[in-house]
Amino acid sequence: MVSPAALLALAAALAVLLVPAAAAACSASDHDALLSIRAALSEDRLGVFSSWAGADCCAGWYGVGCDPTDGRVADLSLRGEAEDAVMAPAGRPASGIMSGYISDAVCRLGRLSSLVLADWKQISGPIPSCVATELPYLRILELPGNRLTGGIPPSVGSLSRLTVLNLADNLLSGAIPGSITSLSSLKHLDLANNQLTGRVPSDFGKLTMLSRALLGRNRLSGPIPSSVSSLPRLADLDLSENSLTGAIPDGLGSGGHVLTSLYLGANRLSGRIPASLLRNSGLGILNLSRNALDGAIPDVFTRQSYFMLLDLSRNRLSGGVPRSLASATYVGHLNLSHNRLCGAIPAGPPFDHLDADSFGGNSCLCGGPLGKCT
Ligand SMILES: *[C@@H]1O[C@H](CO)[C@@H](O)[C@H](O)[C@H]1NC(C)=O
Ligand SMILES: *[C@@H]1O[C@H](CO)[C@@H](O)[C@H](O)[C@H]1NC(C)=O
Fold first, then answer.
1. Is residue 265 within 8 Å of residue 291, measured between CB atoms?
2. Which ligand is closest to the CA of 337, given by its number?
3. Is 12 inside any structural domain?
4. Does residue 4 sit within a domain?
5. Strands 72-79 and 64-67
6. Do residues 285 and 262 touch, judged by C-beta distance below 8 A?
7. Is 353 a pocket residue for ligand 2 (Cβ < 6 Å)?
8. Residue 214 pLDDT > 90, yes or no?
């Protein structure tokens, strides 16, 4: 039983907590750093910097967020494709263009927890390497959709709090730094559509929190590390349009894992399709097209199979169309064309809506949309 006196004391304590404390004004050094960052960038169309006036950068500076207790800048977030009202004055989705470069001054914002300069199309130059060494509180680093060049900072792995690293759609080159696998909090990694070379780090499986890994449309080579199969939370993996070789790791998408989409198209992968992949009832998107995969398609589909997309086209697959595929609950887009398949296409609902395009260019398939087997 809680005494009335204790309840009163609790109420008083809560009241103190609920009285809004005056938020601290912007730290003078962060204010100066922001002005240096602004001086290196230019943006005319939306006027995002027009609010960056006055001494208190924590009061009404667009895209700047502060820790109210000490007036240190915690968030700097400017998006060139935004839905919010400030950015879209006429009620239209706004699209901005910003040029210039990311000043080293960003590293003087030592309490920064998120840094977002996304989809400005023309921001060029390198990612300041000090970002990796001088911003230890960084949780979110998003710089996609610009024209950034140079490499990913080699010490990126020291950003131990990082949960989101999105550098997609730039012109970044060089290798994925090996240190990246030290990012033990990382959930989202998006490096797609750059010019990255070298291998996917072999200990990629150390990223145990990772749920999305998008590395497609680069120039990566070497094998898909087998450690990828052990990532317990991996839901989306895109390694398409690289130059990866070797086999698809056995066990990818197996067990109690949560893989829902896998894009490995347009590489140089060889060997068999692991049965674990096709048996996985959670996998809804599988694109293995344009590789050198061979052998038979494992006949392991079930009533739980539900594929929005199953594209195995342009490989060297042989044998027949698996009979078990006819028992799948749903196959939205199936493409088995340009392989070495032979025999009768099984009858069943998943095949009813498909046309000849899904099966063309094989050795001796027949039935279904291809017409009667003779
Ligand atoms: C499968 O991936 C390849 C390579 O990225 C792509 O060209 C193709 O359009 C994809 N298939 C589908 C149906 O999206
Ligand atoms: C299947 O893939 C081939 C080549 O990869 C493509 O030409 C064809 O249009 C695709 N068919 C369907 C139904 O998407």
1. yes
2. 2
3. no
4. no
5. antiparallel
6. yes
7. no
8. yes
Q: Please report the pLDDT score of residue 1 as a whole number.
A: 44
For a ligand 2 pocket test, name from 357, 358, 362 the mutation site with the most ligand atoms within 8 angstroms of its C-beta.
357
For 74-84, the pLDDT digits (tens) are 999 999 986 65
Atom of ligand 2 nearest to the CA of 354: 13
pLDDT digits (tens, 9 = 90+) for 163-195: 999 999 999 999 999 999 999 999 999 999 999
- CA 304, CA 89: separation in Å to the nearest integer? 48
Range of the domain at 50: 21-370
215: tokens are 């590395």
Residue of 238, 289, 355 to test ligand 1 pocket, by largest number of atoms within 8 Å of CB: 289
Query: 7 in a domain, yes or no?
Result: no
CB 253 within 8 A of CB 275: no
- 162/187 Cα distance (integer angstroms): 8
**Which of 218, 240, 268 has most ligand 1 atoms within 8 Å of its beta carbon, as the pocket-test mutant?**
240
Give tens-digit pLDDT for 112-156.
999 999 999 999 999 999 999 999 999 999 999 999 999 999 999
- Report if residue 303 sits inside a domain: yes
Q: How far apart are CA 312 and CA 335, in angstroms?
A: 6
Number of H helices, E strands in the chain: 5, 27
335 Cβ inside 6 Å of ligand 2: yes
Which pLDDT belongs to residue 84? 58
CATH of the domain at 358: 3.80.10.10
Q: Is the CB of 241 under 6 A from ligand 1?
A: yes
- Phi/psi for 8 (5° steps) reads -60, -45
> Residue 133: which residues within 8 A CB-CB, separation 6 or more?
107, 153, 155, 158
285-287 and 306-311 strand pairing? parallel
Number of domains in the chain: 1
Ligand 1 neighbour 253 (Cβ under 6 A): no
- Identify the pLDDT of residue 21: 59
Residue 20: predicted pLDDT: 52
Say how many residues make up the chain.
374
Q: Which has the minimum average pLDDT: 40-54, 96-110, 182-196? A: 40-54
